[in-house]
Write a structure and sequence with these properties.
This protein is α/β, with parallel strands linked by helices. The protein has a single domain, classed as TIM Barrel (Alpha-Beta Barrel). 49% of the residues lie in helices and 16% in strands.
C-alpha cells in the first residue's frame, strides 16, 4: 500500500466538457482535447462518468479516451450489468463504483454498500480479476468503509460534497464538523488497509484541508475546474489546483508551502 503523506495524485474529471458539447449536440468543446490538455497541465489521471442516460460522456468518448491518453483513466460507473460489460471490454486502469439516480443533477451521495454487500462483492470481483483497480464512492461513514473493506475493494473515495456545500453556504461550524469526520474516516480507512481518495465539489477554497490529510492518495476534481477554465483557461486552472494541493501537502509535512 502507498505510504501516507506521499505525492497526492490529481484526477481531472472531464464530464462537464461533454456537458457543454452536448448542449449544442456537436463536436465542440472536445473532451479528448481537454484530457490531453489536463495531462500536460499536470493531471495524474482522467476521470469520466458514463451515466446510464449518457447525459455528458458517451460510449464513443470512452472509446476515444482509452486510446487518446497516456495517463490512467478512472472510469466512473453505476453497479449495473451494462456498465460492467463496458468496463470489462475496455479494462481501464481504475473503475469507481458510484450511486446513480436519474433525477439527480450530480452524484449526490455515496454508495450504500453496507446493505448490498453480497451483490457488490460479486459485482466487483470480475472487474478486479480483469485488472481494474476498483474504488467505491462512499460517504465518510464507518459502516460504509467497513463494508467496502469486507467486499474486497482496494480503494475507497470519500464524498466531500457535504463539506464543500457547508463551506459555500457559510455554515462554518458544519463545515468544520464535516472536515473532522472526513479526517477521522481517512485515518480509519487507511488503518484497515484501504487506499483513500476524496472528491466531489472541491474548489480552490476547499481543497487544501482535504489535501493535507496524509492518508489521501488522490483527489478527483471536475466541475469547479471546468467552470474556472471559462475564466482562466483549463491549463491555468489545473496548474493552480495542483499547486494548492502540493502546498497543503508540504505544509502538513512541516516543509512550508509557497
Ligand atoms: N468523484 C466522484 C466519484 C464523482 O462522482 C465526481 C462527480 O462526477 C467527482 C469526484 C468530481 O466532482 P466535481 O465535479 O464536483 O468536482
Amino acid at each position: 500500500m502507498a505510504q501516507p503523506g506521499g505525492r497526492l495524485r490529481l484526477g481531472v474529471n472531464i464530464d462537464h466538457v461533454a456537458t457543454v458539447r452536448n448542449a449544442r449536440g456537436g463536436t465542440t468543446p472536445d473532451p479528448m482535447r481537454a484530457a490531453r490538455l489536463a495531462e500536460m497541465a499536470g493531471a495524474d489521471g482522467i476521470t469520466a462518468h458514463l451515466r446510464e442516460d449518457r447525459r455528458h460522456i458517451t460510449d464513443a468518448d470512452i472509446d476515444a479516451l482509452m486510446g487518446a491518453i497516456s495517463i490512467p483513466l478512472n472510469f466512473e460507473m453505476a453497479a449495473t450489468a451494462e456498465m460492467q460489460a463496458i468496463a470489462l471490454r475496455h479494462r481501464p486502469h481504475a473503475v469507481c463504483i458510484v450511486p446513480e439516480r436519474r433525477e439527480e443533477r450530480t452524484t449526490e451521495g455515496g454508495l450504500e454498500v453496507a446493505r448490498e454487500e453480497n451483490r457488490l462483492a460479486h459485482f466487483i470481483a470480475p472487474l478486479a480479476e480483469a485488472g481494474c483497480r476498483v474504488s467505491i464512492f462512499i460517504a465518510a461513514d464507518r459502516r460504509q468503509i467497513e463494508a467496502a473493506h469486507r467486499i474486497g475493494a482496494p480503494v475507497i473515495e470519500l464524498h466531500t460534497g457535504a463539506y464543500c456545500d457547508a463551506h459555500s453556504e457559510g455554515r462554518f461550524a458544519d463545515r468544520d464538523a464535516e472536515l473532522q469526520r472526513l479526517g477521522e474516516m481517512c485515518a480509519f480507512a487507511h488503518d484497515l488497509g484501504l487506499e483513500v481518495h476524496c472528491g466531489h465539489g472541491l474548489t480552490y477554497e476547499t481543497v487544501k484541508p482535504i489535501a493535507a490529510f496524509p492518508e489521501v492518495m488522490e483527489l478527483n476534481i471536475g466541475h469547479f475546474l471546468i467552470g474556472e477554465a471559462i475564466f482562466s483557461g483549463l491549463d491555468s486552472a489545473i496548474r493552480r489546483m495542483r499547486a494548492l494541493m502540493d502546498d497543503a501537502r508540504g505544509e502538513a509535512l512541516g516543509q512550508g508551502g509557497a
